[in-house]
């Protein structure tokens, strides 16, 4: 059993009447020649670290070495939102907070990268609180997210230096969108649409870190990615479908990534990094 | 960055931020350098090249490298205070920004390290994406070490029979070789052999090799 596309993964889940995460776990156990329990146990450890970083990011006073980031997660968590629902507002704070913990040399789980590490944990904690799902389902959902991430990595990229920010926060959001859809009872087909819709909305996002650091705009883009993930899951759960099949969207992301100039692929030579203020920050930091 | 073929390459590693290449990989380069040295580090001159030199400070690359030299792993929260810890235990260290030339990848560091017995090494390590690393040079000899396997390193004078001896020992212990590389300065000069293995060897198995080589190290996977 193996999968090389989202379509194949969804089919395996549908045919075996299993959750997507269960298929991903079974394939991983087979590949690594380990028992599913061992693999699952490793994921439980990752989720524990994620939970610690979620808590830390919205309760502690955090500041990065450069001073470019810190404090926004805590600030946002304590505030009454004007437009967002209280649940979504909290999730945004978590996404910001974890990204800030990362920037300040705290412990996180790269997901798929360190710079995009806030999105999936924030989304899963949102599902846990909003839908009251148990830990066991969250762990399976992490495998669902991982399956989506693996396919994006194989058929496109999960590196900002290769594919821009769409490859990092974009893929993180797609992973989260799929997991959120499945956790809310969406079918495998809906999960596919959630991934497609989410990536479509984040296509072309460039990697332009100010002063070359994983802070501005990376922390903010974790909040944006979280919102895109929630939106895509909600759209897919309503029955809205992506007109472009999910694996073709991933192909498109790959093509877009290849077409991005080097200045917008983590080199800190373009975009926000190359604004007058961005350049001032660079001088200050280096 | 390569293509992920495992769940824990997209959800993982568990690490101290902010950057898998500038922080997690730097810790691991420090860690494997300490293992190659074979004893604790007393003195370190750390030469940062490319992006490590340009943006290393903001990414805590300096702290990460020292943390690794202290023996901390990439998920250890003490990395943040590694420079203070190193000073407390009396390690002398110095950072230099260097240009090693275009042949080296952007995230390269060269470590000149020394232990209490005055044994010293010059080790060049690179970040290859996703927190993965490679050691590409030891004492000027080309090598390829990923740190993901049990690794046998031998540095010896180039002459027939060393590789055969090593592979015979490995075969005797029914250990499977996953990667292997040999290189030398010139015929008859100093040579290096690196064997990455799926299992470990008992340390006493290497005594015959130790008789023939100047340096033999058996290093467990560092991640």
Explain briefly what this protein structure is.
The complex is a heterodimer of chains A (286) and B (223). Chain A is mainly alpha-helical and 286 residues long.
Salient structural properties:
A: 286 residues, mainly alpha, 1% strand, globular, B: 223 residues, alpha+beta, 60s Ribosomal Protein L30, Chain: A, Alpha-Beta Plaits, 2 domains, 6-stranded mixed beta sheet, 4-stranded antiparallel beta sheet, 7 helices
Description:
The complex is a heterodimer of chains A (286) and B (223). Chain A is mainly alpha-helical and 286 residues long. Chain A has one domain: 2-methylcitrate dehydratase PrpD (Orthogonal Bundle). Helix content of chain A is 64%, strand content 1%. Chain A contains 13 helices and one strand. In chain A, helix 5 runs antiparallel to helix 6. The longest helix of chain A has 24 residues. The radius of gyration of chain A is 18 Å and the shape is globular. The model of chain A has no long low-confidence stretch (mean pLDDT 97). By secondary structure, chain B is α+β, with helices and mostly antiparallel strands. Chain B has two domains: 138 residues, D-3-phosphoglycerate dehydrogenase, domain 3 (60s Ribosomal Protein L30, Chain: A, 2-Layer Sandwich); 75 residues, 2-Layer Sandwich (Alpha-Beta Plaits). Helices cover 27% and strands 35% of the residues of chain B. In chain B, the strands form two sheets. Chain B has a six-stranded mixed β-sheet with strand order 3-2-4-5-6-7. Chain B has a four-stranded antiparallel β-sheet with strand order 9-10-8-11, sandwiched between helices. In chain B, helix 2 runs parallel beside helix 4. Chain B is globular and about 50 Å long. Chain B starts with 6 loop residues before the first helix and ends with a strand. At the A-B interface, helix 2, helix 3, helix 5, strand 1 and helix 7 of A face helix 1, strand 1, helix 2 and helix 3 of B.
């Amino acid at each position: 059993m193996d999968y090389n596309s989202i379509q194949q993964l969804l089919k395996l889940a549908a045919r075996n009447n299993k959750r997507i995460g269960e298929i991903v776990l079974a394939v991983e156990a087979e590949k690594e020649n380990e028992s599913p329990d061992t693999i699952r146990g490793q994921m439980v450890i990752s989720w524990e670290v994620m939970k610690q970083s979620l808590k830390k990011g919205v309760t502690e006073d955090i500041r990065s070495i450069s001073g470019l980031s810190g404090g926004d997660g805590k600030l946002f968590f304590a505030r009454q939102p004007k437009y967002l629902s209280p649940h979504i507002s909290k999730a945004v704070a978590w996404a910001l907070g974890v990204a800030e913990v990362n920037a300040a040399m705290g412990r996180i789980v790269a997901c798929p990268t360190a710079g995009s590490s806030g999105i999936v944990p924030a989304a899963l904690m949102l599902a846990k609180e909003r839908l009251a799902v148990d830990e066991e389902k969250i762990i399976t959902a992490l495998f669902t997210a991982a399956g989506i991430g693996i396919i994006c990595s194989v058929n496109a990229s999960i590196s900002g230096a290769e594919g821009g920010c769409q490859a990092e926060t974009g893929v993180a959001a797609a992973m989260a969108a799929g997991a959120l859809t499945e956790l809310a009872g969406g079918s495998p087909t809906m999960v596919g649409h959630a991934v497609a819709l989410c990536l479509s909305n984040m296509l072309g996002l460039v990697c332009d870190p100010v002063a070359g650091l994983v802070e501005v705009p990376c922390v903010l883009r974790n909040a944006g990615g979280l919102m895109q993930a929630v939106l895509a899951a909600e759209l897919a759960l309503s029955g809205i479908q992506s007109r472009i099949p999910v694996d073709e969207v991933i192909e498109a992301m790959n093509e877009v990534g290849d077409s991005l100039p080097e200045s917008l692929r983590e080199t800190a030579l373009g975009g926000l990094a190359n604004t007058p203020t961005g350049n001032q920050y660079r001088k200050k930091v280096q | 960055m390569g293509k992920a073929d495992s769940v824990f390459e997209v959800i993982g590693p568990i690490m101290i931020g902010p950057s898998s290449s500038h922080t997690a990989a730097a810790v691991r380069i420090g860690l494997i350098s300490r293992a190659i040295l074979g004893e604790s580090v007393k003195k370190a001159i750390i030469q940062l090249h490319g992006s490590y030199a340009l943006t290393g400070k903001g990414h805590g690359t300096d702290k990460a490298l020292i943390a690794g030299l202290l023996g901390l792993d990439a998920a250890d929260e003490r990395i943040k205070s590694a420079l203070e810890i190193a000073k407390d235990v009396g390690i002398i260290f110095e950072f230099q920004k260097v240009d090693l030339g275009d042949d080296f990848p952007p995230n390269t560091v060269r470590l000149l390290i020394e232990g209490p017995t005055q044994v010293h090494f010059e080790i060049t390590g690179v970040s290859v994406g996703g927190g993965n690393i490679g050691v590409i040079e030891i004492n000027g000899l080309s090598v390829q070490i990923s740190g993901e396997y049990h690794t046998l390193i031998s540095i010896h004078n180039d002459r027939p029979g060393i590789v055969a001896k090593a592979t015979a020992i490995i075969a005797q212990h029914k250990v499977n070789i996953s990667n292997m590389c040999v290189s030398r300065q010139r015929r008859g000069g100093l040579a290096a052999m690196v064997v990455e293995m799926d299992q470990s060897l008992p340390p006493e198995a290497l005594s015959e090799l130790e008789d023939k080589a100047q340096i033999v190290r058996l290093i467990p996977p560092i991640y």
